[in-house]
Amino acid sequence: MKRIALLWNVVKGDARVLWHALRQPERPVWLVPATALLALYALDPFNIALPLAGVVDDGIIVPLMLHLIVRCLPVHLRQSQPRSARA
Questions:
Q1: What's the DSSP call for residue 80?
Q2: pTM (2 d.p.)
Q3: CA gap 34, 36 in Å, rounded
């Protein structure tokens, strides 16, 4: 249970950084398409056909890809979070 809580905290932090980076005018060109593809993958209709496989798949691949997208961001976008996210 502690690992799930840790994973949730990492995903939540990555989502905040990604949300902040998407709103910046100096974001990389690839960021919007990569985020859109990740969102489409997470909402894939295949999850309806095989619910258990879809949950396991989304629980592993989506957080990993989210973390990879955040790690590929320029340093100034990763570190310049709004004050509310730092607290």
A1: -
A2: 0.76
A3: 5
- Distance between CA atoms of 27 and 62, rounded to whole angstroms? 21
CA 22 to the chain's CA centroid: 12
Neighbours of 8 (CB within 10 A): 11
Q: Are 18 and 70 in contact (CB under 8 A)?
A: yes
Q: Residue 2: which residues within 8 A CB-CB, separation 6 or more? A: none
Measure the CA–CA gap between 1 and 77, rounded to whole angstroms.
31
Contact 17, 37 (CB under 8 A): no
pLDDT at 14: 92
User: What are the extents of the domains in the chain?
Assistant: 2-86
